[in-house]
Fold these 2 entries.
Entry 1:
Amino acid sequence: MKSTVELMAPAGNFESLMAGIHAGANSVYFGVDQLNMRARATMNFTLGDLEEIAEICQKHDVKSYLTLNTIIYDHDLSIIKTVTDKALEVGITAIIASDQAVINYCHQAGMEVHISTQVNVTNFETVKFYAHFADVMVLSRELSLNQVKKITSEIEKQQIKGPSGNLIEIEIFGHGALCMAVSGKCYLSLHTQNSSANRGACIQNCRRPYIVTDKESGYELEIDNEYIMSPKDLCTINFLDQVVDSGIKVLKIEGRGRAPEYVQTTIACYREALDAIAEGTYTTEKVNAWMDRLATVYNRGFWSGYYLGQELGEWTDASGSKATQKKIYIAKGQHYYGKTNIAEFKVEAQNIKQGDTILITGPTTGVIQMEMPAFMVDDVFSTEAKRGEIITFKLDERIRNTDKLYKLVPNE
Amino acid sequence: MVIITLQREKCIGCNYCVEMHAERFRMSKKDGKSVLLNSLEKKGFHTAKVRDEEMDFAQSAAKACPVNIIQVKQI
């Protein structure tokens, strides 16, 4: 049995978009150009990509959500209209907005609106207010599951409906990065680098280690962790049954800035977990296995956020990822022989052996993770291939010449 | 003479350059990105040759830009 909770995947580029779709996401969210919370990311989509994204999503029966959720200045008002009109024209499902200018324009133009977590919705009356404009609302990351449940039950009880005539759906964050600021409203990056987090240009200086000094005495305060402003990543898979029970309709996975294999692994785990809950087969053994898999991709260590009512955050003790695996570039896609299902790659970096865990990623392929099968070098079966050699092996899924092949190794 | 260069494609529309040097920078009403007034474009780089008096303002704009797309050079 499939879960009725919608699983939403992040897409920072076409690789991640395909990875999320193939791994079982029901919807994807992404930004174009500058007015989204990852405007600084180099791999952002552009307005010109919108049509292709919409087409891919429609083909795979996946909903598409465009983020337009930074703070907005007067000089942005025209581009908002351009982006919204284009989204409407190509058939994007909805726009995720936080500024009233965007919410109002989408509403007027007949574009479905979802209220972003940037709005910091923390109570039922606010839900009622935004119900005039929006059908889906992302609650503040700082609420407990009890508070979430209270809001979803009131929606049901008072039959609060959005513009579509359906009951308001509540969405929350299920997995991924958290930050120290309330609903991301942070001034730190702007203060030090003029780079506003609320214009999608957060430089993440909270993720660095800091020393706290008493200026009067010059003494450094004893703090057992220098990463005093960097929380661990949110992970809810070990209490996902309680999350589902809170009455949410959409579970969002954070990570538009992360790699496609992150999207693939995370979405696959949460897909399995949601379906297991629906089937009544959600067990501790499964949870442990999912936790191990989630730890293989980028993470700062996991904690349960504020959902279970902890009083204080948990802070990471590392500057970057604590992923248990890392990927090493090996080969570039050359050709796919469709009749015989043979994939051809050119080894451009390190050696590859039969039995290695490999990752193939690309804008159309998404992510394929598998064990390196028996392969040929120059039409002769071989167990190892070196740089410069062309390898071929049987693969049921089509690969492209834009694909890259990586080897997964333990991260020491 | 001072040369100001703007690589506007990467602009995130924060408005800092306009705050620092309103005479030379404007926010485009069309795409919400910064415009370098009286400049010439070549392969995405917009260049303007301006008087020395603008140096301080132009440098403030370059320094304030969060995505480092403004360059200022004295010639």
Note: The longest strand of chain A covers residues 325-337.
Entry 2:
Amino acid sequence: MSSIISFEGVHFTYPEDELESLCGIDLEIEEGSFVAVLGHNGSGKSTLAKHMNAILVPSSGRVLINGLNTADESQLIGIRRCVGMVFQNPDNQIVANVVEDDVAFAPENLGVPTEEIRRRVDQALRQVGMYEYRLHAPHLLSGGQKQRVAIAGVIAMEPRIIVLDEPTAMLDPQGRQEVISTVSRLCRENGMTVVLITHHMDECVGADRLVVMSNGRIVADGSPAKVFSQVELMHSEGLDVPETTRLIYELNQEGFRLPMDALALDACADALADALK
Amino acid sequence: MLKDITLGQFFPGDTLVHRLDPRTKLIAVVLYIVALFQAGGVVGYMLLILAAAACMAVSHISPKSIFKGLKPMIFIIILTGALNIFYTTGTPVLPGWIITWEGIIRAVKMILRIVLLITGTFLLTYTTSPMALTDGLELLMNPLKKIKVPVHEMTIMMSMALRFIPTLIEETDKIMSAQKARGADFETGGLIKRARALLPILVPLFVSAFRRADELAVAMESRCYHGGQGRTRMKQLRFAGIDYGALLASAAFLAGVIVLKKFGL
């Protein structure tokens, strides 16, 4: 598979800041993959996300989206219809008083014909499981439902990539679950490339690849099982590891020899059962 | 108390009035308002009241909800009535009084005008979704684009404002609760003291509204918003038979009121 997003030596400094927010990022993301970007506050992970649809452009280096350079203003619409962006606060990204009108916003902006908009809106709402709410007012929905409407609003644009910038930060556990299962389904069933920015490590477990950021640099990159097995590194970056990994890590400290890549709950249980035999 | 704001309120339904094209309703309301200011005599006013009542009946909008909307205007209505009663010259009701028969008639007419004006516009907003209303407005004002009036920008601002009314009301409630929890007092004291107490609510509300606006702008741009050029619509407005009928009826109504005025009725 070819890479659809590529960062080449990207540096970025906010105008009002002296410190660099991104210091030399090189990153290739393959089409159809589910990539989670993990980092604590101020690690530069949101800045990274904003580079993916040209909300921010690099101070030096370049970002290519599907071969298009984000610094090229004439390609802006092309880049943005390719990369859908979902933000933290669902209230501030919903533009209409009725769910289906909001979902129609992006295709309307793109000048899609009327019947085609209708089809896309219905399809997008079905994909996120909000079709029966299409005539509701968004402000009366729960946080998780609002965020799913926001996701539908983005996929109605039919992008190839969907970037979610801490989509669950303002949601309750149930809402978080709804959103994460919706995006992983979009990736698995529709072949969409998903980039999920988060600081909840348990949301990264289902990803194909996990990128850990700290102080504007990528400090770890690989499959979630591989990255989380580097427990000392994660701790030194002020990040925790999932409970399954911690359990195995602590048992291994006590002399057990369990596989560190048993990340999923049932894999961990199997590993423990094997050890107890 | 904030829940009582009726601005931009919409009662969904499936009546004849609800199904009319928003443009038809907008034009009909304008014609109705013109008729309101043309009406001269008792018959004319009776017709106007009858028309409003008929629309209310057809659209299943209860008089109660209209009265609820009228409440905030009660002060203006009373003031207008009082001014007309006391400042119209003519034959006094009783010798030596400043209240004149002419004054009373004028006051009644003015009050009726204001009440019917508000009723007409409420019938429009109660039966038309804000989105349809702004769409209709944009299409009606389209010719103004020729003289460089930013019609699309104006209507999108209006629809965003309507979209954020409930969000900002919710936020105001939250801020008020937070301030109350820290001992703020909004209920006692005179007008000035109460107005002052609102200041600690307005400041955070404005700050957060600006932050929201910022985020909203980024989110809209991310969804390829680039002005009104080349935009299409999911819900296209179309004039149907009932629209032509309604427009014809409104025009005939206005003509009728004007003719009645000529005969002094």
Note: The mean pLDDT of chain B is 86.
